[in-house]
Amino acid sequence: MPKKSKKQPTVLIADDDLEILTMVRTLLRRRDVKLLEASDGDEAMRLIRQNHPDLVVLDVMMPGQSGWEVCKALREDDKHKHTGVIMLTGIGERLNEMTSPLYGADAFLDKPFELAALDAAVTKVLAARGF
Predict the structure, then answer these.
(1) Residue 23 contacts residue 112 (beta carbons within 8 Å)
(2) Which one of 21, 87, 94, 105 is at 20 to 30 Å from 48 when CA atoms are compared?
(3) How far, in Å, CA of 66 to CA of 60, rounded?
(4) From the centroid of its chain, how far is CA 62?
(5) Is residue 90 pLDDT above 90, yes or no?
(6) How far apart, in whole angstroms, are the C-alpha atoms of residue 109 and residue 92?
(7) Residue 64 region, left (φ>0) first, then alpha (ψ -120 to 50), else beta?
């Protein structure tokens, strides 16, 4: 297990659904994290390149690049391939289970999801990165 970092992790939430974005924001504000927000895949990539987040919580179906495309781009870029990724989607449990790992996601949750499940996934993915 990596040594625990003293720095505050940066987390990007990317979702075009304002209700989900608000719910995830509310959950993450309980943690000591720097929050960034995007409403589409292109904005998410711009923020990733500028801020180098430690974790990205990505909706799969967004305007611009899809969450899968963003995740794939992260995994192919040496500067970002170690960024944690949690995929959120309402496309169906089986498809999400089969597809998200192919793009390199660390975790995935099907919408609607329990906040406790997201909180546990965030804890696990950040812990794997030393937070």
Answers:
(1) no
(2) 94
(3) 5
(4) 13
(5) no
(6) 10
(7) left
Q: What is the pLDDT of residue 47?
A: 98
Q: What DSSP line would sit under 61-117, residue for residue?
A: S-SSS-HHHHHHHHHH-TTTTTSEEEEEE-S-HHHHHHHGGGGT-SEEEESS--HHH
* Per-residue pLDDT at 98: 55
Q: Is the pLDDT of residue 69 over 80?
A: yes
Residue located via tokens 């609607």: 112
Rg (CA), the chain: 13
Helices H / strands E in the chain, number of each: 5, 5
Sorted by where each starts, the structural domains of the chain and their CATH numbers stand as 10-128 (3.40.50.2300)
DSSP type of residue 17: -
Residue keyed to tokens 């990505």 = 58
Is 44 in contact with 12 (CB distance < 8 Å)?
Answer: yes
